[in-house]
UniProtKB/TrEMBL annotation:
Superkingdom of the organism of origin: Eukaryota
AB hydrolase-1 domain mapped to chain residues: 10-268
Pfam families: Abhydrolase_6
Protein name in UniProt: AB hydrolase-1 domain-containing protein
Organism expressing this protein natively: Clonostachys chloroleuca
SUPFAM superfamilies documented for this protein: alpha/beta-Hydrolases (SSF53474)
InterPro entries documented for this protein: AB_hydrolase_1, AB_hydrolase_fold, Sec-Metab_Biosynth_Hydrolase
Taxonomic lineage of the native organism: Eukaryota, Fungi, Dikarya, Ascomycota, Pezizomycotina
Length: 278
């Protein structure tokens, strides 16, 4: 009997629209996967974006697309990119096959795959595993203190979120971020990708800590470590992998946009993840 392929739900990185992954989605569809690309609730072009929105609102968007299909008995793989690791993991809570079966429900999430994604080591704490929270002025270039940079990455001068500005509870990126996020893409492609980003994201989406983290997951976890990433360098990703106790790690020759740089490699890994969980 032919085993149906699972759904793949892609949770976007910060400021990324669903169509940022359109070419990669087409590749997966050619392989026979059905793909969901729920939009971030916390990002928009609008100056009136509700600054109170957090990752919890992103989870609502994920569930709005995913849960009706799980209720039909479908299975799913959650794939996150960068910031998307936060809402992606939160969306899995209570929705694995085992957890749903305990409630008399069919379907469920069978695996989690993180592509150069953020990983929170413990519940209700920051990425550093403590209570550190940025307190920006009304217009402030984000920095991480040297103290905390040394705690998490002795060799890395933390500049990830870095080329962002915060004003009135909303974050915008400076043009400097383009060279970090799309460092290994052709210049015109990088400009196109950067120009297509949402203009704003809520500050709270970065500062509200999760109630459910990678170490809570009871399903297989795979990390795609992007060796040429200039936004979240490989040395920090290695720490994230350790903090999240990932079962499998694949190292990719890519910057922070593996879905553009090495889409075939990512698609092949997803095929393996599915076959290993049949």
């Amino acid at each position: 009997m032919t085993v149906p392929r699972p759904l793949i739900a892609i949770v976007p990185g910060a400021l990324h629209r669903p169509n940022a992954y359109s070419n990669f989605v087409q590749l997966l569809e050619q392989q026979g996967f059905e793909v969901l690309t729920p939009p971030l609730a916390v990002a928009s072009d609008s100056e009136t974006l509700d600054k109170e929105l957090t990752y919890v609102d992103d989870v609502k968007n994920i569930h709005a697309q995913l849960l009706p299909l799980l209720d039909q008995g479908r299975k799913a793989i959650i794939l996150s990119h960068s910031y998307g690791g936060l809402p992606a993991v939160a969306s899995i809570e209570g929705q694995t096959c085992e957890e749903r079966a305990a409630r008399g429900l069919s379907g469920g999430i069978i695996s989690y795959v993180a592509a150069c994604a953020v990983v929170y080591p413990v519940r209700n704490k920051s990425l550093m595993g403590d209570d550190t929270e940025f307190q920006p002025t009304p217009y402030h270039r984000i920095k991480v203190s040297a103290h905390h940079a040394q705690l998490i990455l002795p060799t890395y001068q933390f500049h990830t979120f870095l080329n962002m500005h915060v004003q009135d509870g909303l974050v915008t990126v400076t043009d400097d971020a383009r060279a970090l996020w799309y460092s290994d893409l052709p210049e015109e492609e990088g400009k196109e990708a950067f120009g297509a980003l949402f203009k704003r994201q809520t500050w709270k989406s970065f500062t509200v800590f999760p109630r459910y983290v990678e170490n809570d997951l009871k399903i297989p976890k795979t990390y795609l470590l992007c060796e040429n990433d200039q936004a979240i360098p490989a040395s920090w990703q290695e720490l994230l992998v350790k903090n999240g106790s990932f079962d499998t790690v694949h190292r990719l020759k890519s910057g922070h946009a593996p879905f553009r740089k090495v889409p075939e490699a990512v698609a092949k890994i997803l095929e393996e993840v599915w076959k290993n969980n049949v």
